Amino acid sequence: MAVAYAISEKLVYTKENEYTGNTQYYYRMRYCPVCGTKRQRCLRIEEEGETTAYICKYAPSDKEIETAIGTCWVHEESTNKEFKKLKEIKTIKEPKSKPLNEETLSFRTEVYNTMKKLLIKYEKENLPKYKGKIIPLYKHHYEDLKKRGLNDEQILRNGYFSVPISNRKVFAKDGNYKHKITTAISKDLYDKFGNELLNVPGFIKLKDQFGNEYITYKTKVSNYLVETDKNGENVVKTDKNGKEMKEYVEIDGYFIPYERLGNIYALQYRLTKEVYDNKGKKRRYLWYSSKQASSGSPIAHHIPMNLKRIDVLLVTEGALKGVIASEFLGFEGLYEAGVGNYNNLLFTLQKLEKIVEKKFKIILALDMDKYENPDVLRAEKETIRLLKSTGHQVAIAHWPIEIGKGIDDALLYLHKLEQKIKEGEQLINELNTPELKEKAKEKLLQMKQIYNESKIKYKVV
Ligand SMILES: [Zn+2]
After folding, report:
1. Cα-flanking dihedrals φ and ψ of residue 224, to 5°?
2. pTM for the whole structure
């Protein structure tokens, strides 16, 4: 073996073997028989004309060493053990898929919460802080939530966290070399949870360059390539074989947990930049899901920090929107993943009412563009029918669409207007001419009028 490789090798240095006293020759190989690469980073050690070991940069063994080019692994030729190990490619047996019950749900919750903790562990220097606590969101994700009207306390309490940006480098456990944050977090999760991770939506099995299988979480999302057809509509491009064209882009976004009574049922994520789906439609909110484990269509529940009414329950579509609206209004809420999910909504509502031993008055707040969409209107009608058939009092929330399509945007608009009115009232006292005062009063009156006209109104149905 030594002869065959000698031509393409370069002697890098020599060293005395402290045990045998022989000279060890270290050769840099053009081709490494351990990992099979030609990257010229792996070494062969020769002693008394015999190969005794390889120091490989790419194929792990249980003998890890630090070198000038980072972590490498020793593979000893003499015992041949490591080589045998190498030939046995690591495969991961897929666990039996399990139904969503108390046990699998709490496992799911623990995995997601651990993922959040690991993001904090590896990225703490780059994350915002509040009262000594680290907010698990990259700055631009954090700012998006602030812009929507949530404060730091609410952000922390609601459990949002960023999808770790996969190309960031972090220090490995021993602190000696850096690797991708995705590798670090996936490894930690695998050590703790093992193959069962595949039963959690968003976790997938992949193969490394040596054919070894490993489990990681999704870091990419497909983005279909679109073009406009002759009617001006977006359509997905196809290649010459008629296959739809798409690319995979890194996920830059944050998770929105769909939580209920302390359990995370699923994670939705909000992308900073929209992608196109296979129908050529722009998508910003997607489910963290995988083939082995689906996110399902969960119903989220939330109790706001300043609960104002204990008999009212806000029902809307989408947990991000719903939670923000609940925080503004001071109403408890249930949020469906889609408007057509009313059967599941009612089932969840009845279960919740059994636990808390009360019947809620329901406020239904679907987006105000519902009048342009017959499917949404039909779903609203059906939801009301079901709610009433189970003896619930129902009111529909409405507001002018100009101040916001969703109830969260409308409430944010109203909140800002309210602040402006308050500021204006204080400012009036500081004005020193009667003319200015009169003008300001007039302006304030106008603002108050707009406020009253735009306020969320409830119609009992
Ligand atoms: Zn190698």
Report:
1. -75, 145
2. 0.81
